[in-house]
Amino acid sequence: MRSGLVRLSCALALFGTPMTAAAQAPIQGAVRVAPRGTVLADLTWIEAERRLTADAVIVIPLGAEAKEHGPHLRLDNDLKLAQYYRQRVLEAADVIIAPTINYHFYPSFVEYPGSTHLRFETARDLVLDIVRSLAAYGPRKFYVLNTGVSTARPLAAAAEILAAEGLHFAYTNIIEVAGEAEKQVSQQLRGTHADESETSAMLYMYPDRVDMSKAVKDDAPQGVGGLSRTPGNGKTYSPSGVWGDATLATREKGRVIVEATVQGMLREIEALRARR
After folding, report:
1. Phi/psi of residue 92, each to 5°?
2. φ and ψ of 151, to 5 deg
3. CB burial class (10 A; 0-12, 13-18, 19+) of residue 34?
4. Global confidence as pTM
C-alpha cells in the first residue's frame, strides 16, 4: 500500500496541473469558457455547408447510455464520460462535434440487466454510415472519442474500410491513452471495468453519480468471452459487474487519469489534423 501511495504522490507531481474550471465541476450547467470548436447540431444546414470542408476535423463521441457498471455506478456511465470529454475537446480544439453515439458493441455485459449491445457488424456499419454521410459534404478526417474497450474492435474494422476509401479515421484507445499516468496511480491487481480507474475518473467528473458505499472488489483472473455472473464457465467471474477494485478509487487518482486522457485525446486529434 505504501508503494502505491508513493506512486500516487509522484504522479500528482508529474501529471497534476492546476485544476481547470471545466474540471472543477460536472459538465451540467453554464459553459465556462468560449469553445474553440463547433457543435454540428447547433448549425443550420447553410452554416454546416460552410463549415464542413476538407480541412475540418469531425469528432464523434461514443459512450453507452445503457451498460452495467457495477452496483456503485449508473448504466449511463460511459455516456457521461463521453459528454465530459466532448466538452473538454470542444473547449480546447478547433473541431466539429457530431452527435454522440449511445449504442455500440458491448458483448461482455449482456448477462447484467439493462445492458444493451449491438452486433459487431451493426456497430461497425453504424460508424461507417455516419462517417460516409458527413464525408459526402467535404470532410476527410474523423476522430471517435471512444470510451469503451470492446468498441475498439468494430472501430478498427471501420478504420480499415474507410482508409481504402481515402478517409482518415482514428479513435481513442481508452486503455492506452492515459496509460503512463494510470500506471502511476493504480493500486489494483487487475481490472478494466467499473474498477479503480473508471470509478476514480467519475469521482473527479461527476462525484454525485458515484455511490462509494456500494463499491466492491471483484478481480478474478480474466477469462474468455466477457464478464459473467456464473462461476466456472470460462468467462471472467464477477457477481457485481465490476472487474477490478473499485474500493481503491479516489478523486485525486481520477484527476491524474482524466487530465492525462484529455491531453492524449487532444494530441491524437492534432496528429489526425496533420495527416495528408
Report:
1. -105, -20
2. -60, -20
3. exposed
4. 0.88
For 176, phi then psi, to 5°, come to -100, -25
d(CA 38, CA 264): 20
Which one, of 260, 251, 156, lies nearest residue 207 by Cα? Answer: 251
- Alpha carbon distance 213, 223 (integer Å): 28
Spatial contact of 212 and 253, defined as CB atoms under 8 Å apart: no
C-alpha cell at 241: 459487474
Bridge partners (DSSP) listed for residue 146: 62
2-13+25-273 to CATH, choices 3.40.50.150, 3.40.50.10310, 3.10.520.10, 3.40.190.10: 3.40.50.10310
pLDDT in tens, 6-44: 454 444 444 444 344 344 444 444 445 678 999 999 999
Tell me the three cell numbers of residue 240: 457485481
- On the CB side of 149, CA atoms within 13 Å amount to 14
Burial 177-209 (b: 16+ CB within 10 A, else e): bbeebbebbbbbeebbbbbbbbbbbbbbbbeeb
Place of cell 478509487: 249
Contact (Cβ atoms closer than 8 angstroms) between residue 227 and residue 195: no
pLDDT in tens, 168-225: 999 999 999 999 999 999 999 999 999 999 999 999 999 999 999 999 999 999 999 9
